[in-house]
Amino acid sequence: MYTMESIDKKIQILQDIINNSNSIVFFGGAGVSTESGIPDFRSTSGLYNQEWKYPPEQIVSRTFFNHKCSEFYKFYCQKMIALDAKPNPAHFKLAELEQKGKLSAIITQNIDGLHQAAGSKNVFELHGSVHRNFCLNCNSFYDASFILEQHKIDSEGIPHCTKCNHIVKPDVVLYEESLDNNTIDNSIKAISKADTLIIGGTSLVVYPASGLVRYFKGKNLVIINMSPTDYDKNSTLLIQGKIGEVLSRISVV
Ligand code: NAD
Hey, what domains does the chain have and what are their CATH numbers? Predict the structure, then answer.
């Protein structure tokens, strides 16, 4: 494991790994979007360290959605929908790696859609997306702007279906809900076939998502994260730094 080298040396090693890889999979989380201005959950400026009437992990649970929907939408619309956010250099570099045939898939725990906004095509969204919302009764589709508008208009801040007046729910996997089976299967297939797995911007503490990393059988396990993770000891290259800054220094040939 290369832990003692300078950041320049580590980025050179990462460059060599990427040059010699043909099937990279990227596995990421909220830290990938902090450089786009979206707070993560567990950094000191993250959502878990902000003052709310209820702890965020309680708010983003299905029980809370069912019983305190108005409070859920207050937090969700203020803190989890960021339609003005733009992709940062990490998103763009990963999209470029895919376009050049180096990267086969992105597996993300993020719900912000910024990988797709940067041009990435094969993105597995383990926890869903703020951009998809469905009526819990008739399954009608709504986009994120609809949710924000209805949150403002409705007396309790709860978006309702324009067809049947039932509550609309984001297609976001809340605590106590299951991940989509197809998305998990596709993620496992992609990770099992990868020659390099780059993990970035995730504390790797949210299960079952982080358990997917165990399916990696390839050569290079790279971790780019600001703070330590339980998987650091398994990495072949560990870079402690901002992922946008690190990936912006990589050339794609
Ligand atoms: P987390 O908050 O638990 O961990 C984020 C990790 O990223 C931390 O280890 C932090 O040190 C690191 N980090 C922060 N900024 C970084 C940067 N610029 N470069 C490198 N590392 C950086 O996030 P998680 O592991 O993704 O789990 C939280 C859950 O909440 C996930 O389901 C996540 O998708 C969701 N969430 C999503 C968003 C989003 O869609 N943008 C935002 C907040 C939370």
Answer: 1-37+87-127+179-253 (3.40.50.1220), 39-81+131-172 (3.30.1600.10)
